[in-house]
Amino acid sequence: MAHQRGAASSDAVKEPHSISLKVLRLSRPSLSIQHPLPLPTPSPSPSQSPGTHPTPSASLAYPSTKHDTFILSPLLTLPPAFGSAYVGETFSCTLCANNEILAGSSAAKTVANVRIEAEMKIPSSKVPMLLTLGPEVERVDTDTEVMEDEKRYGHGVDLAPGRSLQKVINFDLKEEGSHVLAVTVTYSETTATSGKVRTFRKLYQFVCKGCMVVRTKTGPLPSSCKGGKWALEAQLENCGEETITLDSVILEARKGFKSHGINWEVLREGEGVERPVLMPGDVQQVCFLVEEILGPDEREQEPVDGRLIFGILSLGWRGTMGNRGFLSTGDLGAKVTS
Amino acid sequence: MESTNRYHKALPRRPTRGPLDASDPTSNPLSSPTALPHQQSSGLSSPSRYHTPRLPSPNTGSNLSSTPSFKTATSTLPLTQKDFPHLLRPEIYHPLTLIDVPPPFRTPASQPPPGASLPSLLHGGHFRSAAIKASQLLTDPSLNPSNHAEIFALVYTRLACLTLCNQTALAAQEVKSLEDLNSAHYRDENTGIHLMPWELRVLAVRLQGMGYADVRRGVMGYYDLAREARLNLGTVKKNLATLSEEGDEVEKADLEVEMQIYEGRLQELGVRVASALIEMEDLEGAARFLKTLSPSSTAEGPSRLDHQKALLYLCLGDVEAARACIASSSQETSHDNEAKVIHALSHIADANYGLSAPIWEELIASSPTDGRSEVAMYKQNLAVCYLYLGRIDDARFTLERLLAPHPASEPSSTFHALTFNLSTIYELCTERSRALKIGLAEKVAEILVEQREGGGGGGGGEKVNGDFKL
């Protein structure tokens, strides 16, 4: 869960801010669940209807005229909670700076030049990383609009009471551990008698967990020609809390080796690809054949520290509603026994 | 989806191929009457039995196979007297409170007139009041314990209405009073016909699975029902085959209607089994199961099943498989629209919200405005795209217009996901979102009163705090 840490206000003004900041993690929206009530069969004609049945559409996710008895509907619901954050996923979040001045309030304040800045503090680095704020600058046709855009995106926007400035950030999660999203809002506040630039900063902390554990094992295979041949096996364990579908598992071979997978992508004629589904705790075993490519004068590949390095394993998966995850292992190889 | 994580590891992966495949009733051993011993169920047995998953259950349905015709049996044999006093005990039915109901829905205008009849409560969408009314009628001393038609109709109303006012957990407790749905006590002694209406039996299966905290029970209960429907279907088909030689047109038409009913029931049970697997979070099992279903023979059959598969694949995250489901879909308009919905959802799954939005816009533009279409869903999904695209003002405007359309001739929508999404956007828009959310609840209450006064019924039904994130 994301915890909002105590708002660190960088100016000493005790007066409440005219701008509020609200955030929502933008995981994928979900399909709405419905539990359609069973209806009498044969359906009674309206005239002889016993009047003991609720309207058929009452149990549907939205007023559809089709009486679908399936639990999933195509209607989208926004994410209800922060959920879990996993290494390999893209963390998306929307930030809203809102003008909280009540329309028609006595103190005639106006706010202008509202800007949002966002940084991510990751476990391995003391220096926070500056995040790009979307949406991208929109397409412009004329020069005046360019200036307008620059004013809007480069130098902040003017917000009328009750209006919001919305930004979206995307960040690729690569490390386990505590992350802090730091958001700074700057704006100028003008009253009849004075004007000042005000700023505040809010911190949102969340923990990023591993979702995929990869264990590998290499074994030599008998080889007819001179170069070596190995089988690289890997166990992929879903240690997250969500069901995922494996999208691609590739052994990216280094120069001097070639590999080919003998997994689900190998199809018999007429078969369709059936991607493995891993429920929490499930393990999928994959295997690759690795062959050494000999140098021009039949020279074998040089071991490094007693190991031959084949390459890295890169995994891609999709979680609920297509949420993508990517992961690459470190160097994989075999010990040279001589 | 309720979280049922703890079931994950306990659930064995079982092949779910079964008697639900309607095409050939003789191919499946489960459907053959000889495969099951003719066994009388032991009446209403002790509740402890329900805590263990049942093996292929004592199936009184199998004695139906000896009935020459379902239809003639009912008309010629007298009904036996059976009493169901165990469903009339007041202690079964829990009191319902308004504790979870937002204040705007507790006002006199939002409440039904006192003494309203059950049909009028149901028509007005007063499901909480209807649930209370049903239990009052059930526990009224004047109700004859042998009037099974009335009793079961009221039990259905009670349970159905509880699920519609966010009290499914209570329904799951109360449904236990039905005990063993396959009990011989629920069958006519002469004909073997189940005395409960079909819709109650289907509803009770899911609720009992929840009530006994045994999710697999639900799946097995559907299989029991499917077995019976298949047996009946086989009998009807056999009768039809012998009849067609003699050529009695009226009887033949009757049998064909019956055949359609049983085929329809088998189709529906297939979808319900898949839904039950999804509800227990076995999405993979559900996907495998859906693959085994053959599309129904009706016009919308094939595309409907493909559509359902595609939604499930999207849930699983297998976007390519979802797209493949609609690749072969026909180009007729309504099916075409369903394919567009899957396309647009697939773009969202790929995080291409900018590609999804124009599809929803196009679907909205090409929809009639009489409310007899899927336009509410298109608009809601477009609004969700807007939010992900950083266009929160457009998102808010689209949802608010869906609630209170302009022009006012278009129907208002008040469904849960709409008020939930709008409340989420209000929370993003201001620190004072509570006032906006209460305002939203007031607006919805007003719309429901208007709809009821307009005689349009209250399909929107009951609202709870969770609908407005209050």
Give the SSE map:
The complex is a heterodimer of chains A (338) and B (470).
Chain A: E1 3-8, E2 19-25, E3 30-33, E4 72-77, E5 85-86, E6 90-99, E7 110-121, E8 129-130, H1 143-154, E9 157-159, E10 164-172, E11 177-190, E12 195-209, E13 212-220, E14 229-238, E15 244-253, E16 257-261, E17 277-278, E18 283-292, E19 307-318, E20 324-328, E21 332-335
Chain B: H1 70-76, H2 118-123, H3 127-139, H4 148-164, H5 168-174, H6 198-211, H7 215-246, H8 249-279, H9 283-292, H10 301-316, H11 319-327, H12 333-349, H13 353-365, H14 375-388, H15 392-403, H16 416-429, H17 433-453
Helix pairs in contact in B: 3-4, 4-5, 4-6, 5-6, 6-7, 7-8, 8-9, 9-10, 10-11, 10-12, 11-12, 12-13, 13-14, 14-15, 15-16, 16-17
Structure characterization notes:
Chain A: Residues 48-57 have a biased composition (Low complexity). Chain A: This is DUF974 domain-containing protein. Chain A: One of its GO terms (cellular component) is TRAPPIII protein complex. Chain A: InterPro entries: TRAPPC13, TRAPPC13_M, TRAPPC13_N. Chain A: Residues 17-208 form the Trafficking protein particle complex subunit 13 N-terminal domain. The complex is a heterodimer of chains A (338) and B (470). Chain A is built from 1 helix and 21 strands. Chain A is mainly beta. Chain A has 3 domains: 3-28 and 79-209, Sandwich (Immunoglobulin-like), CATH 2.60.40; 30-77, no CATH class; 212-335, Immunoglobulin-like (Sandwich), CATH 2.60.40. In chain A, strands 1, 5, 7, 8, 9, 11 and 12 form a 7-stranded mixed beta sheet that branches. In chain A, a hairpin with a 7-residue loop joins strand 7 (110-121) and strand 8 (129-130). Chain B is mostly helical. Chain B is built from 17 helices and no strands. In chain B, helix 3 (127-139) packs antiparallel against helix 4 (148-164), helix 4 packs antiparallel against helix 5 and helix 9 (283-292) packs antiparallel against helix 10. At the A-B interface, strand 2, strand 3, strand 4, strand 6 and strand 10 of A face helix 2, helix 4, helix 6, helix 8 and helix 9 of B.
